[in-house]
Amino acid sequence: MKILFVIYELSYADHIALAYLSAMAKQLHHSTFFCSLDSHDFFSMVDAIKPDVIAYSVNIQGFIPLVKAHKEACKRHSFISIMGGPHRTFSPETFSESGVDAYCIGEGEYAFQEFLRNVEKGESFDFVENLITKNRINPIRSLISDLDTLPPADRDLVLANSFLKDTQKKTFYATRGCPFSCAYCCNNYYQDLYKGKGPLVRRFSVERIIQEIERVRSEYQMSFIKFGDDLFAMKADPWLEEFTKKYAQRIGIPFNCYLRFDCITDAMLKLLKEAGCFSVHLSVDSTSQHIREHVLNRSMKAIPISDMLKKIKRYGINTWVNYMLAVPESSLQDDLDSIEMSREGKVTYTNYSTTVPIKGTRLFNHCVERGYINSTLHKSDMTGCIQKSTLSCFSEKEKDIRYNIYLLGSIITKLPFPLYQCALFVIKIIPPNAFFKKLHDRFYTFYIMNKIFKLKKA
Protein backbone atom coordinates (compact mmCIF):
# COMPACT_ATOMS: atom_id res chain seq x y z
CA MET A 1 0.00 0.00 0.00
CA LYS A 2 0.95 3.64 -0.40
CA ILE A 3 0.79 5.72 2.79
CA LEU A 4 0.92 9.51 2.81
CA PHE A 5 1.86 11.14 6.13
CA VAL A 6 0.55 14.70 6.50
CA ILE A 7 1.28 17.42 9.07
CA TYR A 8 0.23 21.05 9.29
CA GLU A 9 3.68 22.62 9.38
CA LEU A 10 7.29 21.59 9.90
CA SER A 11 9.54 23.34 12.40
CA TYR A 12 13.31 23.05 12.77
CA ALA A 13 13.02 19.68 14.52
CA ASP A 14 12.43 16.49 12.59
CA HIS A 15 8.98 14.96 13.12
CA ILE A 16 10.29 11.90 14.95
CA ALA A 17 6.87 10.30 15.51
CA LEU A 18 6.31 10.02 11.77
CA ALA A 19 9.79 8.57 11.34
CA TYR A 20 8.87 5.66 13.62
CA LEU A 21 5.43 5.18 12.06
CA SER A 22 7.00 5.09 8.60
CA ALA A 23 9.50 2.50 9.81
CA MET A 24 6.64 0.34 11.09
CA ALA A 25 4.86 0.68 7.74
CA LYS A 26 8.00 -0.25 5.80
CA GLN A 27 8.37 -3.38 7.94
CA LEU A 28 5.12 -4.45 6.27
CA HIS A 29 6.60 -3.54 2.84
CA HIS A 30 4.45 -0.46 2.30
CA SER A 31 5.64 2.73 0.54
CA THR A 32 5.58 5.97 2.53
CA PHE A 33 5.43 9.63 1.53
CA PHE A 34 5.58 12.92 3.45
CA CYS A 35 3.63 16.15 3.11
CA SER A 36 3.65 19.33 5.19
CA LEU A 37 0.80 21.69 4.31
CA ASP A 38 3.02 24.76 4.76
CA SER A 39 5.54 23.69 2.10
CA HIS A 40 4.00 21.00 -0.14
CA ASP A 41 1.05 20.94 -2.53
CA PHE A 42 -1.08 18.42 -0.71
CA PHE A 43 -3.76 18.02 -3.37
CA SER A 44 -1.21 17.55 -6.17
CA MET A 45 0.45 14.87 -4.07
CA VAL A 46 -2.88 13.12 -3.50
CA ASP A 47 -3.57 13.22 -7.26
CA ALA A 48 -0.09 11.90 -8.13
CA ILE A 49 0.40 9.29 -5.39
CA LYS A 50 -3.20 8.10 -5.05
CA PRO A 51 -2.52 6.88 -1.50
CA ASP A 52 -4.33 3.94 0.02
CA VAL A 53 -3.96 5.48 3.48
CA ILE A 54 -3.52 9.08 4.59
CA ALA A 55 -2.18 9.44 8.13
CA TYR A 56 -2.49 12.89 9.69
CA SER A 57 -0.46 13.94 12.72
CA VAL A 58 -1.69 16.93 14.69
CA ASN A 59 0.29 18.69 17.39
CA ILE A 60 -1.14 21.48 19.55
CA GLN A 61 -2.25 23.45 16.51
CA GLY A 62 -3.27 22.74 12.93
CA PHE A 63 -6.38 20.62 13.51
CA ILE A 64 -8.83 22.88 11.64
CA PRO A 65 -6.73 23.35 8.46
CA LEU A 66 -5.90 19.63 8.35
CA VAL A 67 -9.57 18.69 8.63
CA LYS A 68 -10.41 21.16 5.86
CA ALA A 69 -7.67 19.72 3.63
CA HIS A 70 -8.79 16.17 4.41
CA LYS A 71 -12.40 16.81 3.42
CA GLU A 72 -11.28 18.34 0.13
CA ALA A 73 -8.94 15.39 -0.54
CA CYS A 74 -11.87 12.99 -0.05
CA LYS A 75 -13.56 14.60 -3.06
CA ARG A 76 -10.54 13.84 -5.26
CA HIS A 77 -9.59 10.31 -4.23
CA SER A 78 -10.84 7.38 -2.16
CA PHE A 79 -8.62 6.38 0.78
CA ILE A 80 -8.66 5.23 4.41
CA SER A 81 -7.71 7.95 6.91
CA ILE A 82 -6.29 7.98 10.41
CA MET A 83 -5.29 10.87 12.65
CA GLY A 84 -2.91 10.82 15.62
CA GLY A 85 -0.59 13.07 17.59
CA PRO A 86 -0.93 15.00 20.88
CA HIS A 87 -4.05 16.89 19.85
CA ARG A 88 -5.95 13.66 19.22
CA THR A 89 -4.83 12.21 22.54
CA PHE A 90 -6.02 15.28 24.47
CA SER A 91 -9.17 15.88 22.43
CA PRO A 92 -10.74 12.52 21.52
CA GLU A 93 -14.17 14.16 21.62
CA THR A 94 -13.38 15.92 18.29
CA PHE A 95 -13.48 12.63 16.35
CA SER A 96 -16.94 13.22 14.89
CA GLU A 97 -15.98 16.59 13.40
CA SER A 98 -12.70 15.37 11.89
CA GLY A 99 -14.19 13.27 9.09
CA VAL A 100 -11.41 10.66 9.37
CA ASP A 101 -11.93 6.92 9.76
CA ALA A 102 -9.91 6.51 12.96
CA TYR A 103 -8.16 8.38 15.73
CA CYS A 104 -5.02 6.93 17.29
CA ILE A 105 -4.64 7.79 20.99
CA GLY A 106 -1.28 7.71 22.77
CA GLU A 107 1.84 5.83 21.67
CA GLY A 108 0.98 4.69 18.19
CA GLU A 109 3.58 2.42 16.57
CA TYR A 110 2.02 -0.99 17.17
CA ALA A 111 -1.54 0.33 16.90
CA PHE A 112 -0.67 1.83 13.51
CA GLN A 113 0.94 -1.39 12.31
CA GLU A 114 -2.09 -3.44 13.31
CA PHE A 115 -4.35 -0.86 11.64
CA LEU A 116 -2.38 -1.18 8.39
CA ARG A 117 -2.60 -4.99 8.45
CA ASN A 118 -6.37 -4.80 8.76
CA VAL A 119 -6.70 -2.19 6.02
CA GLU A 120 -4.56 -4.26 3.64
CA LYS A 121 -6.68 -7.35 4.28
CA GLY A 122 -9.89 -5.37 3.90
CA GLU A 123 -10.85 -6.19 7.47
CA SER A 124 -12.40 -3.98 10.15
CA PHE A 125 -10.04 -2.02 12.40
CA ASP A 126 -12.81 -1.30 14.92
CA PHE A 127 -11.17 -3.44 17.60
CA VAL A 128 -7.57 -2.21 17.33
CA GLU A 129 -6.37 -1.00 20.74
CA ASN A 130 -5.65 2.77 20.94
CA LEU A 131 -8.07 3.51 18.11
CA ILE A 132 -11.34 5.42 18.11
CA THR A 133 -13.62 4.65 15.19
CA LYS A 134 -17.21 5.52 14.37
CA ASN A 135 -18.27 2.24 15.98
CA ARG A 136 -16.03 1.90 19.01
CA ILE A 137 -13.66 3.50 21.52
CA ASN A 138 -10.92 0.98 22.28
CA PRO A 139 -8.74 0.62 25.39
CA ILE A 140 -5.12 1.77 25.44
CA ARG A 141 -2.41 -0.87 25.04
CA SER A 142 0.62 -0.96 27.32
CA LEU A 143 3.60 1.26 26.63
CA ILE A 144 6.57 -0.13 24.70
CA SER A 145 8.88 -1.14 27.54
CA ASP A 146 11.97 -1.92 25.42
CA LEU A 147 12.38 0.89 22.90
CA ASP A 148 15.19 -0.97 21.13
CA THR A 149 12.59 -3.44 19.80
CA LEU A 150 11.31 -0.69 17.50
CA PRO A 151 12.79 -0.65 13.99
CA PRO A 152 15.27 2.19 13.31
CA ALA A 153 13.39 5.43 12.71
CA ASP A 154 12.91 6.28 9.04
CA ARG A 155 14.64 9.65 9.29
CA ASP A 156 14.70 9.97 5.49
CA LEU A 157 10.90 10.36 5.39
CA VAL A 158 11.10 13.96 6.58
CA LEU A 159 14.77 14.87 6.17
CA ALA A 160 15.01 13.92 2.50
CA ASN A 161 11.72 15.64 1.68
CA SER A 162 12.07 18.97 3.43
CA PHE A 163 14.40 21.90 4.06
CA LEU A 164 15.81 20.00 7.06
CA LYS A 165 18.20 18.08 4.81
CA ASP A 166 20.20 21.31 4.42
CA THR A 167 20.16 22.51 8.03
CA GLN A 168 23.27 22.17 10.19
CA LYS A 169 21.35 21.15 13.32
CA LYS A 170 19.71 17.74 13.58
CA THR A 171 17.49 16.56 16.44
CA PHE A 172 17.59 13.17 18.18
CA TYR A 173 15.69 11.56 21.05
CA ALA A 174 17.29 9.19 23.55
CA THR A 175 14.27 8.77 25.82
CA ARG A 176 10.50 8.76 26.00
CA GLY A 177 8.45 10.12 28.87
CA CYS A 178 9.12 12.39 31.84
CA PRO A 179 8.91 11.41 35.53
CA PHE A 180 7.50 14.79 36.58
CA SER A 181 3.95 16.16 36.35
CA CYS A 182 4.15 19.93 36.00
CA ALA A 183 0.68 21.48 35.81
CA TYR A 184 1.31 23.23 32.48
CA CYS A 185 2.66 20.12 30.72
CA CYS A 186 0.71 17.48 28.86
CA ASN A 187 2.78 14.85 30.64
CA ASN A 188 0.33 14.79 33.55
CA TYR A 189 -2.36 13.73 31.07
CA TYR A 190 -0.12 10.89 29.83
CA GLN A 191 0.54 9.76 33.39
CA ASP A 192 -3.19 9.41 33.98
CA LEU A 193 -3.77 7.79 30.58
CA TYR A 194 -1.06 5.16 31.07
CA LYS A 195 -1.50 4.41 34.74
CA GLY A 196 -0.79 0.70 35.20
CA LYS A 197 0.35 0.38 31.57
CA GLY A 198 4.10 0.22 32.19
CA PRO A 199 6.88 2.67 33.06
CA LEU A 200 6.36 6.07 31.43
CA VAL A 201 10.09 6.91 31.28
CA ARG A 202 12.13 4.69 28.96
CA ARG A 203 15.51 4.95 27.25
CA PHE A 204 16.97 3.67 24.05
CA SER A 205 20.30 1.93 24.52
CA VAL A 206 23.37 4.11 23.99
CA GLU A 207 24.50 1.98 21.04
CA ARG A 208 21.11 2.42 19.37
CA ILE A 209 21.32 6.23 19.63
CA ILE A 210 24.93 6.37 18.46
CA GLN A 211 24.13 4.25 15.41
CA GLU A 212 21.17 6.48 14.51
CA ILE A 213 23.35 9.58 14.68
CA GLU A 214 26.00 7.89 12.55
CA ARG A 215 23.42 6.99 9.91
CA VAL A 216 22.06 10.52 9.69
CA ARG A 217 25.56 12.05 9.65
CA SER A 218 26.58 9.81 6.76
CA GLU A 219 23.79 11.19 4.55
CA TYR A 220 23.10 14.76 5.68
CA GLN A 221 24.85 17.92 6.82
CA MET A 222 25.27 18.05 10.57
CA SER A 223 27.50 20.33 12.65
CA PHE A 224 25.34 20.44 15.79
CA ILE A 225 22.99 18.07 17.59
CA LYS A 226 20.00 18.86 19.76
CA PHE A 227 18.64 16.15 22.04
CA GLY A 228 14.95 16.98 22.23
CA ASP A 229 14.11 14.75 25.21
CA ASP A 230 11.98 16.25 27.98
CA LEU A 231 14.83 15.38 30.36
CA PHE A 232 18.07 14.01 28.90
CA ALA A 233 19.60 12.81 32.17
CA MET A 234 18.53 12.62 35.81
CA LYS A 235 21.85 11.49 37.26
CA ALA A 236 25.37 10.39 36.42
CA ASP A 237 24.46 6.74 35.90
CA PRO A 238 26.07 3.91 33.84
CA TRP A 239 23.98 4.92 30.78
CA LEU A 240 25.41 8.44 30.84
CA GLU A 241 28.92 7.09 31.39
CA GLU A 242 28.60 4.82 28.36
CA PHE A 243 27.07 7.65 26.32
CA THR A 244 29.96 9.99 27.22
CA LYS A 245 32.58 7.50 26.08
CA LYS A 246 30.92 6.42 22.83
CA TYR A 247 29.66 9.87 21.84
CA ALA A 248 33.08 11.47 22.33
CA GLN A 249 34.84 8.70 20.41
CA ARG A 250 32.42 8.15 17.53
CA ILE A 251 30.43 11.38 17.10
CA GLY A 252 32.35 14.34 18.53
CA ILE A 253 29.76 16.93 17.48
CA PRO A 254 28.78 19.65 19.99
CA PHE A 255 25.29 19.17 21.38
CA ASN A 256 22.51 20.70 23.45
CA CYS A 257 20.16 18.91 25.85
CA TYR A 258 17.48 19.55 28.48
CA LEU A 259 18.32 19.23 32.18
CA ARG A 260 16.54 19.98 35.44
CA PHE A 261 18.10 22.13 38.16
CA ASP A 262 17.51 19.77 41.07
CA CYS A 263 18.99 16.78 39.19
CA ILE A 264 22.29 18.41 38.28
CA THR A 265 25.49 17.27 40.01
CA ASP A 266 29.18 17.85 39.42
CA ALA A 267 29.50 14.25 38.25
CA MET A 268 26.77 14.80 35.63
CA LEU A 269 28.28 18.06 34.38
CA LYS A 270 31.72 16.48 34.14
CA LEU A 271 30.39 13.64 31.97
CA LEU A 272 28.34 15.96 29.75
CA LYS A 273 31.32 18.23 29.17
CA GLU A 274 33.55 15.26 28.32
CA ALA A 275 30.95 14.07 25.83
CA GLY A 276 30.92 17.45 24.08
CA CYS A 277 27.94 19.27 25.58
CA PHE A 278 27.97 22.87 24.33
CA SER A 279 24.80 24.17 26.00
CA VAL A 280 21.87 23.09 28.16
CA HIS A 281 18.22 24.10 28.36
CA LEU A 282 16.84 24.70 31.85
CA SER A 283 13.52 25.96 33.17
CA VAL A 284 13.05 28.11 36.26
CA ASP A 285 9.49 28.95 35.19
CA SER A 286 8.92 31.37 38.08
CA THR A 287 11.26 33.06 40.53
CA SER A 288 8.60 32.44 43.18
CA GLN A 289 8.94 29.05 44.81
CA HIS A 290 5.30 29.29 45.88
CA ILE A 291 4.16 29.68 42.26
CA ARG A 292 6.46 26.85 41.11
CA GLU A 293 5.14 24.45 43.73
CA HIS A 294 1.48 25.37 44.22
CA VAL A 295 0.38 26.68 40.82
CA LEU A 296 2.75 25.02 38.38
CA ASN A 297 3.27 21.84 40.43
CA ARG A 298 6.91 21.86 39.39
CA SER A 299 7.99 20.14 42.65
CA MET A 300 11.55 21.36 42.26
CA LYS A 301 13.75 21.11 45.33
CA ALA A 302 14.64 24.42 46.91
CA ILE A 303 18.15 25.03 45.56
CA PRO A 304 20.18 28.20 45.02
CA ILE A 305 19.39 28.61 41.32
CA SER A 306 21.91 31.37 40.65
CA ASP A 307 24.71 29.34 42.24
CA MET A 308 23.79 26.31 40.12
CA LEU A 309 23.86 28.44 36.98
CA LYS A 310 27.33 29.72 37.82
CA LYS A 311 28.48 26.16 38.45
CA ILE A 312 27.34 25.09 34.97
CA LYS A 313 29.21 28.04 33.51
CA ARG A 314 32.41 26.97 35.33
CA TYR A 315 32.22 23.69 33.43
CA GLY A 316 32.25 25.65 30.18
CA ILE A 317 28.64 24.84 29.28
CA ASN A 318 26.38 27.62 28.02
CA THR A 319 22.90 28.03 29.52
CA TRP A 320 19.50 28.73 28.01
CA VAL A 321 17.08 29.43 30.87
CA ASN A 322 13.33 29.74 30.41
CA TYR A 323 10.87 31.72 32.53
CA MET A 324 7.09 31.64 32.16
CA LEU A 325 5.58 35.11 32.27
CA ALA A 326 2.08 35.90 33.56
CA VAL A 327 1.56 32.69 35.49
CA PRO A 328 -1.82 32.80 37.27
CA GLU A 329 -1.48 34.31 40.78
CA SER A 330 2.10 35.47 40.12
CA SER A 331 3.06 39.08 40.79
CA LEU A 332 4.63 41.48 38.35
CA GLN A 333 7.66 41.57 40.63
CA ASP A 334 8.06 37.80 40.26
CA ASP A 335 8.55 38.31 36.53
CA LEU A 336 10.83 41.34 36.91
CA ASP A 337 12.98 39.35 39.36
CA SER A 338 13.78 36.90 36.57
CA ILE A 339 16.02 39.53 34.97
CA GLU A 340 18.11 39.92 38.11
CA MET A 341 18.24 36.16 38.65
CA SER A 342 19.70 35.67 35.18
CA ARG A 343 22.17 38.51 35.66
CA GLU A 344 23.36 37.03 38.93
CA GLY A 345 23.61 33.52 37.47
CA LYS A 346 25.44 34.77 34.35
CA VAL A 347 22.96 33.05 32.06
CA THR A 348 24.06 32.83 28.43
CA TYR A 349 20.58 33.41 27.04
CA THR A 350 17.44 34.16 29.01
CA ASN A 351 14.32 32.97 27.24
CA TYR A 352 10.76 33.99 28.05
CA SER A 353 7.40 32.55 27.15
CA THR A 354 3.92 33.82 28.00
CA THR A 355 1.90 31.30 29.98
CA VAL A 356 -0.69 29.53 27.81
CA PRO A 357 -2.91 26.96 29.53
CA ILE A 358 -3.15 23.98 27.14
CA LYS A 359 -6.28 21.87 27.09
CA GLY A 360 -5.74 18.58 28.89
CA THR A 361 -3.38 20.05 31.50
CA ARG A 362 -4.07 20.78 35.14
CA LEU A 363 -3.16 24.42 34.60
CA PHE A 364 -5.95 24.69 32.02
CA ASN A 365 -8.45 23.30 34.52
CA HIS A 366 -7.08 25.64 37.21
CA CYS A 367 -7.66 28.67 34.96
CA VAL A 368 -11.14 27.56 33.91
CA GLU A 369 -12.22 26.98 37.51
CA ARG A 370 -11.09 30.48 38.53
CA GLY A 371 -12.55 32.21 35.49
CA TYR A 372 -9.19 33.33 34.05
CA ILE A 373 -10.12 31.89 30.64
CA ASN A 374 -13.27 30.88 28.82
CA SER A 375 -12.81 27.20 27.98
CA THR A 376 -14.88 27.49 24.79
CA LEU A 377 -13.17 30.64 23.46
CA HIS A 378 -9.60 30.09 24.68
CA LYS A 379 -7.04 29.46 21.92
CA SER A 380 -5.22 26.49 23.36
CA ASP A 381 -2.18 26.57 21.09
CA MET A 382 1.44 27.52 21.50
CA THR A 383 1.30 30.70 19.39
CA GLY A 384 0.21 32.50 22.56
CA CYS A 385 3.61 31.83 24.11
CA ILE A 386 5.09 34.66 22.05
CA GLN A 387 2.23 37.10 22.55
CA LYS A 388 0.68 39.16 25.34
CA SER A 389 -1.14 37.25 28.02
CA THR A 390 -4.86 36.71 27.53
CA LEU A 391 -5.59 35.69 31.13
CA SER A 392 -8.22 37.87 32.78
CA CYS A 393 -6.42 37.97 36.14
CA PHE A 394 -4.00 40.68 34.95
CA SER A 395 -4.59 44.32 34.00
CA GLU A 396 -3.67 45.54 30.52
CA LYS A 397 -0.80 47.54 32.01
CA GLU A 398 0.59 44.43 33.70
CA LYS A 399 0.25 42.50 30.45
CA ASP A 400 2.17 45.21 28.57
CA ILE A 401 5.04 45.21 31.06
CA ARG A 402 5.21 41.43 31.07
CA TYR A 403 5.27 41.36 27.28
CA ASN A 404 8.08 43.92 27.34
CA ILE A 405 9.99 41.52 29.58
CA TYR A 406 9.44 38.87 26.90
CA LEU A 407 10.77 41.23 24.23
CA LEU A 408 13.67 42.87 26.06
CA GLY A 409 14.38 40.87 29.21
CA SER A 410 17.16 38.81 27.63
CA ILE A 411 18.88 41.99 26.43
CA ILE A 412 18.53 43.78 29.75
CA THR A 413 20.33 40.95 31.56
CA LYS A 414 23.47 41.86 29.57
CA LEU A 415 23.46 45.61 30.28
CA PRO A 416 25.90 47.28 32.70
CA PHE A 417 24.39 48.70 35.88
CA PRO A 418 23.36 52.27 34.89
CA LEU A 419 21.81 51.15 31.60
CA TYR A 420 20.24 48.17 33.35
CA GLN A 421 18.28 50.46 35.71
CA CYS A 422 17.21 52.72 32.83
CA ALA A 423 15.99 49.76 30.79
CA LEU A 424 13.90 48.49 33.71
CA PHE A 425 12.29 51.92 33.92
CA VAL A 426 11.66 52.04 30.13
CA ILE A 427 9.82 48.69 29.95
CA LYS A 428 7.44 49.86 32.67
CA ILE A 429 6.34 53.04 30.90
CA ILE A 430 6.65 52.44 27.14
CA PRO A 431 4.13 50.02 25.57
CA PRO A 432 5.38 47.08 23.48
CA ASN A 433 6.17 48.16 19.93
CA ALA A 434 7.71 47.09 16.62
CA PHE A 435 11.16 48.42 17.58
CA PHE A 436 11.26 46.29 20.73
CA LYS A 437 10.20 43.31 18.63
CA LYS A 438 13.00 43.90 16.12
CA LEU A 439 15.59 44.15 18.91
CA HIS A 440 14.29 40.91 20.39
CA ASP A 441 14.41 39.01 17.10
CA ARG A 442 17.96 40.06 16.24
CA PHE A 443 19.29 39.35 19.71
CA TYR A 444 17.57 35.96 19.76
CA THR A 445 18.93 34.96 16.35
CA PHE A 446 22.50 35.87 17.25
CA TYR A 447 22.51 33.98 20.54
CA ILE A 448 20.76 30.91 19.15
CA MET A 449 23.16 30.68 16.22
CA ASN A 450 26.34 31.28 18.18
CA LYS A 451 25.90 30.66 21.90
CA ILE A 452 23.20 28.01 22.27
CA PHE A 453 23.49 26.15 18.98
CA LYS A 454 27.00 26.34 17.56
CA LEU A 455 25.98 26.50 13.92
CA LYS A 456 28.23 26.91 10.93
CA LYS A 457 27.14 29.45 8.36
CA ALA A 458 25.73 27.94 5.19
Tags for this entry?
458 residues, alpha/beta, Rossmann fold, TIM Barrel, six-stranded mixed sheet, six-stranded parallel sheet, 18 helices, 14 strands, 42% helix, 15% strand
Give the topology, please:
Blueprint: E1 2-7, H1 16-27, E2 31-36, H2 42-49, E3 53-57, H3 63-76, E4 80-84, H4 86-90, H5 95-98, E5 102-104, H6 109-121, E6 131-133, H7 156-159, E7 169-172, E8 175-176, H8 187-193, E9 202-203, H9 206-219, E10 224-227, H10 238-250, E11 255-258, H11 266-275, E12 277-285, H12 289-295, H13 305-314, E13 318-325, H14 332-345, E14 349-354, H15 362-369, H16 396-412, H17 417-429, H18 434-452
Parallel strand pairs: 1-2, 1-3, 3-4, 4-5, 7-10, 10-11, 11-12, 12-13, 13-14
Antiparallel strand pairs: 5-6, 8-9
Helix pairs in contact: 1-6, 2-3, 9-10, 10-11, 13-14, 14-16, 16-17, 16-18
Instruction: Give the N-to-C terminal Cα separation.
Output: 38 Å
- Domain count: the total is 2
Secondary structure class reads alpha/beta
Work out the radius of gyration: 23 Å
Structure, described:
This protein has 458 residues and is of the alpha/beta class. The protein has two domains: 2-133, Rossmann fold; 167-452, TIM Barrel (Alpha-Beta Barrel), CATH 3.20.20. Helices cover 42% and strands 15% of the residues. It is globular.
Summary, kept brief:
With about 450 residues, the protein is an alpha/beta fold. It has 18 helices and 14 strands.
